[in-house]
Design brief:
This protein is α/β, with parallel strands linked by helices. The protein has 11 helices and 10 strands. It has a 10-stranded mixed sheet with strand order 3-2-1-4-5-10-9-6-7-8, with helices on both faces.
Length: 283
């Protein structure tokens, strides 16, 4: 099992090289077809009497296309690589949201790689979409790479956030190509002592079940059952990442209504904001 089609969304020139530094080795390891995608935001507007506004929009569009050309050059910089094939795409959103365009291009990919959100994207006035939203729309696993950190390997020591939900099950099995290559996988079940007692009585052991399933796939796996921290789920997961020295976090993307302004749950949102290691999300 491997990732044979990988789509990487390159948001801007600033983060492109760091994102590719993490993505290229993944494509090499799996002998994948790597698709680099840049999405142009919607900047067209009806003609109006105020020609100054039209001119500003044209300048903005020209600047975005120039940046996309520079991103393309960064993507193609290594030249042909025998271990994987590559393809460049430039997408104009038209009247779509950027996230919809990314989801459409990534719908046939095994995994979509994106950058952690940067607050400067909003302060600059650019319409950028969050990693969690892309995962909800695409129906594909999304690998989020933290910005400002040197990430040249995906995996190693992996922490799996497991609660036997639909989302966590999707995340674990979407991550199998990475888990099978990991040096150690720690399955973390966060639950109170009362919950553990009830599961024991019912005969359902979710942590043990998933560890057994992963072991059958050849994954080196250990189970950790820990109580939640008072600060909530996000704090519990982030603390576990540090304590277990994890290099990758696998977790469900717990979504709400697509029409909601806050499209995914608070824990997911907090973890993505504070992340220091790559995170694989599935919805």
């Amino acid at each position: 099992m491997s990732y044979k089609t990988i789509l990487v969304h390159l948001v801007d020139e600033l983060h492109a090289e760091g994102l590719l530094r993490a993505t290229r080795p993944l494509a090499e390891a799996h002998g994948a077809h790597l698709i680099g995608l840049s999405v142009l935001p919607l900047v067209d507007a009806p003609s109006r009497k105020d020609t100054t506004v039209d001119e500003l929009l044209r300048q903005y569009q020209s600047a975005m296309r120039s940046e996309a050309a520079r991103i393309e050059a960064i993507f193609k910089a290594p030249g042909p690589v025998a271990a994987y094939t590559s393809e460049w795409r430039l997408a104009d959103t038209g009247f779509e949201r950027a996230s919809d365009a990314i989801a459409r291009h990534g719908s046939a990919a095994d995994i979509i790689v994106v950058s952690q959100d940067d607050p400067s994207w909003q302060s600059s006035g650019l319409m950028r979409d969050s990693a969690g939203l892309i995962g909800l729309l695409a129906g594909r696993p999304v690998l989020v790479i933290p910005h400002g950190r040197e990430i040249d390997q995906i995996g190693g020591r992996v922490l799996v956030a497991w609660n036997a939900s639909r989302e966590s099950a999707r995340a674990v099995f979407d991550a199998l190509p990475l888990l099978k290559r990991a040096s150690m996988v720690t399955v973390l079940c966060v639950q109170s002592p009362d919950a553990a007692d009830n599961q024991s009585i019912s005969g359902f052991q979710p942590g043990e079940d998933i560890c057994s399933a992963l072991t059958r796939h050849g994954v080196k796996c250990e189970l950790k059952v820990e109580p939640p921290l008072a600060d909530g789920t996000a704090a519990t997961l982030l603390s576990a990442v540090e304590r277990h020295k994890a290099q990758l976090l696998v977790m469900g993307d717990y979504g709400r209504s697509r029409l909601s302004e806050f499209i995914f749950g608070g824990a997911t949102r907090s973890v993505l904001r504070e992340m220091t290691i790559p995170i694989l999300l599935s919805h």
